[in-house]
Amino acid sequence: MSKVLTVKDVTKHFGGIAALNECSLFFERGHVTGIIGPNGAGKTTLLNAMTGLVKPDAGSIEFDGQDITGLPMHRIAAQGLVRTFQIVRELRGLTVLESLLLCPPHQIGEKVGGALFARSLVNRQDTANATKARKILERLGLWRVADQSAAALSGGQKKLLELARVLLLDPKFILLDEPAAGVSPPLLKDIIRIVKELNGEGISFGIVEHDMHLINEVCDDVHVLAEGTALVSGSFSDVTADQRVIDAYLGMAI
Question: Is 66 helix (H, G, I), strand (E, B) or coil?
Fold first, then answer.
């Protein structure tokens, strides 16, 4: 296996607080990698730094052989590194399908010239995007609610809709921020199944999560963060038996 995403000595301060403190870790290509740790350990800040939502104060981030440190989110996403969010913000007033069809990049109809003078190209692209969106919604079990308001979905369905959005971008690597939060057990089983299927098709994953069942079920390896830095890395069984992890996060061996 090769490294697909590498974080080296990344530091990020908010005021006088170091949310990340010379944090270094890496993600193997083709793996599902968990990121766990106590609240305030820097997990979400790490995701934000890797995907361009915040710019590191120091250190570097490399994705698929390219330095992406400090690049804006849309440029990082265009390279194949995408993410979901812990708190889902649906597009109120739009249906599930409509909110999904906003996601594909480089839509000809979004430009004045394309909308006015390239209607046939716009129509073909719109048809292709709609076909792709339907296949993704069917795969995620959301096609039956495609015409319903996105705001009316359950918490778990909204998590699936966010995953559907990033899948429209043809990602190489997906970062999930607490996909199990607020999700019913049946939908959590669906999320676990879908992550395994997508990983089997070549998509790498990084998952920030407190649900140890999900981490144990899907992750090939795990990074434990504490106080803004990587405390220990390894298999789930190894890290959860490590006394440093027990003291900092778990409280008891799993």
Answer: strand
85 and 30 in a single domain? The answer is: yes
Query: In 3D, which of 5, 63, 50 has the Cα closest to residue 31?
Result: 5
Which tokens in the block code for residue 211? 């649900």
Range of the domain at 168: 3-90+154-250
Are the CB atoms for 42 and 19 separated by under 8 Å?
yes
226 and 133 both lie in a single domain: no
pTM of the model: 0.89
- 118/141 Cα distance (integer angstroms): 34
Strand duo 32-36 + 204-208: pairing: parallel
Q: What whole-number distance in Å separates Cα of residue 91 and Cα of residue 94?
A: 6
Alpha-carbon torsion 168, 86, 26, 236, what sign?
negative
What's the farthest any 2 CA atoms get from each other in the chain?
66
Rounded CA-CA distance 64/52 in Å is 15
Q: 219 and 207: one domain?
A: yes
> pLDDT (tens digit, 9 = 90+) per residue, 134-180?
999 999 999 999 999 988 888 888 899 999 999 998 999 999 999 99
Residue keyed to tokens 């073909």: 124
3-state secondary structure of 52: coil
- Asked if residues 5 and 50 have their Cβ atoms less than 8 Å apart, the reply is yes
Q: Which pair of structure tokens corresponds to residue 70? A: 């400090």
pLDDT per residue as tens digits for the range 188-231: 899 999 999 999 999 999 999 999 999 999 999 999 999 999 99
